[in-house]
Design goal:
The complex is a heterodimer. By secondary structure, chain A is α/β, with parallel strands linked by helices. Chain A contains nine helices and ten strands. The model of chain A has no long low-confidence stretch (mean pLDDT 91). The termini of chain B are far apart. Classes of the chains: A alpha/beta, B mainly alpha. The interface between A and B is medium-sized, with 30 and 19 residues. Bound molecules: adenosine-5'-diphosphate and magnesium ion.
Chain lengths: 245, 271
């Protein structure tokens, strides 16, 4: 990448819940087209961090700049438009369990593109399902799907709006190694296919190794170290090393 | 979830004044929070496009869910009321008042309140549990971050549906109650249904029906409100689904009586 365009800039982000200071000055940017993995122990505030980016949680300190606009300055209507450009894959997939897979995918689509006719909708749903290899699951209910399938459908539902930024919250946690690898591959594929910039939160080193262009490690509410997988692996620091055993 | 005004107040009060909150403050903040939720419903009700399909689905579900129970309770209520009043009226030789008296009690008070309480239990807990589990499994968050207005889709449709379906169920329950009353009156007598209905309805006036209907709309509203408020604001954690459902029923039942109390004052002033 010759000119690095930053799609997301976090500066000095701080967030406390009561006396529990979860984020204590996180600064990091996301470069267009890159996969940034955020590594950290359980409870280190990784989920809180990405929830701040989509304003599910309001940060107490610092600024978040998305596509060159500060989140402090956006109106509620613009916030919704901005959210449509950011995809968020929740830890459990967060499928709407009263709706079939097809309805799950149509839900965000028809609400953001009121002008689409049924053919165009069907088309987009099929493409999205095909992307995650689950074309035949369209008429199933979420309760009938396995954990891995739910994550894939969640991913398909998120990607159907063609987001420019993807935020993955522990995409492989709770899955067996084979399915984990499939999900990691899928993340890479989507990056290539749609040129999305992604933040991938994980403590699964295999997933980090496969998907990352760059890794940021979070500790005590701050970014502790950043680098490529290989760079971090060769560090002497025992705390960093503890991730690589 | 974005912290709402009441949570902000709470934060400010606790953090800034470093005075621990007493129960009275907590109560006030809770009332404010419920009130804001209700205002938000009215505000977002007029935001287009309206989620019509979901509204119909919810309306059908609510009606369908409570119809059986409302039928049984409505019938028994009319029957019991009649059987119990009959001897007393007979003592005064006023048995001919029976149909009218029962009809007025049912239409004015017992029908609406019993139906509302049934719905508070059945529908309030259903909505509380459903939205609570959607909150816990991050489905509401997922709607929020995809910019699809979960409040409009989930809350507005449900609260509107309860506000419309509950009054309809009340009408139906009134009718079934009067039928039950006929059965009660006719256990040893031989009144024709036609005569009974005529006596019952001739003593009913518009001034009985209108306040009861308005009251029922508010019953429906607070049942939807309680279910939605408790479910939508459920905490994360698996046990909170049960808590939300349970608190929704308690809150809905209390609110029904509160509305009833306010309604009786109003009708007394106006009529
Ligand atoms: N809504 C919330 N209210 C209070 N505390 C929270 C909330 N969300 C997260 N926390 C706390 O923030 C810390 C970090 O949580 P989280 O970001 O979920 O960790 P993880 O890195 O495992 O994703 C935890 O101690 C958690 O208890
Ligand atoms: Mg997490």
């Amino acid at each position: 990448m010759s000119v690095e365009e930053k799609v997301l800039v976090l500066e000095n982000l701080g967030k406390s819940f009561g006396s529990n200071k979860v984020l204590n000055g996180v600064s990091i940017d996301l470069v267009k087209g890159e996969n940034l993995v955020i590594l950290g122990k359980s409870g280190s505030g990784k989920s809180v961090l990405i929830k701040c980016i989509v304003k599910l949680i309001d940060n107490d300190e610092g600024t978040i700049n998305v596509f060159g606009t500060s989140l402090d300055e956006v109106s509620p209507a613009d916030l919704n438009k901005m959210r449509a450009r950011i995809g968020f894959l929740f830890q459990g997939g967060a499928l709407y369990d009263s709706m079939s897979v097809r309805e799950n995918l149509e839900f965000p689509l028809v609400r953001h593109h009121r002008d689409l006719d049924q053919d165009a909708i069907d088309d987009k749903v099929s493409t999205a399902l095909d992307n995650v290899g689950l074309l035949d699951a369209a008429d199933k209910l979420p309760a009938e799907l396995s954990g891995g399938m739910r994550k894939r459908i969640g991913l398909a539902r998120t990607l159907i709006l063609n987001p420019e930024i993807m935020l993955y919250d522990e995409p492989t946690t709770g899955l067996d190694p084979v399915t984990s690898n499939e999900i990691s591959e899928l993340i890479l594929e989507m990056q290539k296919k749609y040129q999305t910039s992604s933040i991938i939160i994980t403590h699964d080193m295999n997933c980090a190794k496969l998907t990352s262009n760059r890794i940021a490690m979070i500790r005590d509410g701050k970014i502790y170290e950043t680098g490529t997988f290989e760079e971090l692996k060769s560090k002497e620091d025992p705390w960093i090393q503890s991730f690589f055993i | 979830m974005r912290p709402n005004l009441a949570q902000n107040i709470k934060k400010t009060v606790v953090l800034k004044s470093s005075v621990s909150m007493n129960q009275f403050q907590t109560l006030l903040i809770n009332v404010a929070d419920w009130w804001l939720f209700l205002l938000r419903f009215f505000k977002e009700l007029f935001h287009l496009p309206f989620e019509f399909n979901e509204f119909v689905r919810q309306g059908y579900k609510i009606g369908n869910k409570s119809l059986g129970l409302v039928t049984i309770t409505g019938f028994i209520m009319g029957l019991v009321l009649t059987i119990q009043s009959k001897p007393t009226l007979a003592d005064f030789g006023a048995e001919s008042w029976l149909p009218g008296m029962v009809a007025i009690s049912i239409v004015r008070e017992i029908g609406p309140v019993i139906t509302a309480l049934i719905c508070a239990g059945k529908v309030g807990s259903g909505i509380g549990a459903e939205l609570g589990s959607m909150r816990v499994t991050e489905q509401i968050d997922a709607m929020e971050v995809s910019g699809t207005h979960p409040f409009r889709f989930l809350v507005v449709t449900r609260m509107l549906a309860t506000s419309i379906i509950v009054p309809i169920l009340v009408f139906y329950s009134d009718f079934v109650g009067i039928l039950g009353s006929y059965v009660g009156a006719n256990i040893d007598g031989d009144v024709t249904l036609q005569l009974f209905l005529m006596q019952a309805t001739s003593s009913l006036e518009f001034s009985d029906l209108i306040p009861a209907t308005i009251k029922s709309v508010f019953f429906g509203l607070v049942i939807g409100l309680a279910g939605c408020y408790k479910g939508y604001n459920a905490n994360k954690g698996t046990e909170s689904v049960g808590v939300a459902a349970n608190e929704a029923v308690v809150a809905a039942s209390l609110l029904v009586f509160l509305v009833d109390l306010i309604a009786v004052q109003f009708t007394n002033i106006i009529l």
